[in-house]
């Protein structure tokens, strides 16, 4: 016979409402049964003669019934849920707050559905250009499906923390730290985009645990210590080059405008030599780092 291949796909649990009851009603029942049991035991002790089996059995079952009812109580705080199980089989989740009650042979496993705030450790990651950077992120998350969180992963808190580290490393290596040419997205200059992509990446990773990612933000971003000094000098050099480039472009435009207006208004006739001298002087004035000192020529331009 031809063997069928095994289906290795993970069968995920899904949260369903549990059939539980208000604990306050059962509390009244418990008090009534306890009072009846106490009255029966006291009356039996005052009975003359040997009591019959019909008189003893109800008085024995009373305390047993009280113990069974008491075992079914459990308390849920706001934003807390309880997964109900029958001999290990999932029966549903109760999200109703206050005093609750279920059958005593059912087990209750509580889980918090509050918002969790986690800040990852500073991780050393190589960015897109291979430069080591230190990066950390803050993640806000909460449990959405209690059945998946409890039964589809071993420890959902540890699972989320590991996936946060993996997502931070993945996003940190996807973008360069900085780019002065503004040709691509960077970790430093496009924090909102990087945070949104990290949230989407992390959400896909923790979906199997029934967790919802509400927000992610980068809390720390810097070059690693071993290259921080060199990268700072590189950034300064690139900033100087970029500033010089902008300055030269502006100076050329101003010189061109000055020559055009002088020629258009016939202020002065400039031959090639005079034009070259004016261009040289204007470029020195506009591009120099220090203030220029004017020199007044009282003679001919050619002297």
Automatic annotation (TrEMBL):
Gene3D superfamilies of this UniProt entry? Band 7 domain
Q: Which domain of life is it from?
A: Bacteria
Record bears the keyword Transferase: no
Q: Where in the cell is it found?
A: Membrane
Q: Where does the Band domain start and stop, copy by copy?
A: 71-239
Could you list the residue ranges that cross the membrane?
Answer: 21-44, 56-76
UniProt xrefs under Pfam families: Band_7
Task: Indicate whether Transmembrane helix appears among the record's keywords.
Answer: yes
Q: Which InterPro entries does UniProt cross-reference here?
A: Band_7, Band_7/SPFH_dom_sf
Q: Which SUPFAM superfamilies match?
A: Band 7/SPFH domain
Q: How does it sit in the membrane?
A: Single-pass membrane protein
Ordered alphabetically, the record's keywords are:
Membrane, Transmembrane, Transmembrane helix
Protein's recorded name: SPFH domain-containing protein
Organism, by scientific name, is: Aquilutibacter rugosus
């Amino acid at each position: 016979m031809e063997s069928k291949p095994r289906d290795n796909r993970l069968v995920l649990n899904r949260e369903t409402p549990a059939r539980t009851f208000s604990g306050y009603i059962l509390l009244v029942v418990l008090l009534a049964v306890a009072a009846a049991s106490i009255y029966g035991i006291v009356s039996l002790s005052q009975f003359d003669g040997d009591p019959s089996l019909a008189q003893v059995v109800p008085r024995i079952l009373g305390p047993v019934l009280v113990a069974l009812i008491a075992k079914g109580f459990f308390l849920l705080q706001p934003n807390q849920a309880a997964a109900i199980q029958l001999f290990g089989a999932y029966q549903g989740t109760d999200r109703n707050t206050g005093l609750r009650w279920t059958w005593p042979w059912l087990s209750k496993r509580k889980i918090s559905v509050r918002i969790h705030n986690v800040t990852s450790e500073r991780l050393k990651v190589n960015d897109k250009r291979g430069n080591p950077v230190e990066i950390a992120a803050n993640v806000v998350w909460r449990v959405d499906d209690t059945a998946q969180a409890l039964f589809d992963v071993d420890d959902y808190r540890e699972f989320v923390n590991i996936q946060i580290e993996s997502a931070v490393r993945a996003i940190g290596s996807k973008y360069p730290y900085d780019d002065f040419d503004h040709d691509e997205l960077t970790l430093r200059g496009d924090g909102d985009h990087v945070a949104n992509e990290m949230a989407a990446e992390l959400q896909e990773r923790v979906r199997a645990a029934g967790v919802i990612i509400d927000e992610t933000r980068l809390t720390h971003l810097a070059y690693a210590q071993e290259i921080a000094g060199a990268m700072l000098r590189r950034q300064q050099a690139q900033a100087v080059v970029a500033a010089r480039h902008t300055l030269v472009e502006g100076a050329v435009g101003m010189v061109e405008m000055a020559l055009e207006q002088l020629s258009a208004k016939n202020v002065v006739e400039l031959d090639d030599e005079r034009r070259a001298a004016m261009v040289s002087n204007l470029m020195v004035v506009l591009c120099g780092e220090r203030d220029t000192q004017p020199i007044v020529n009282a003679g001919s331009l050619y002297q």
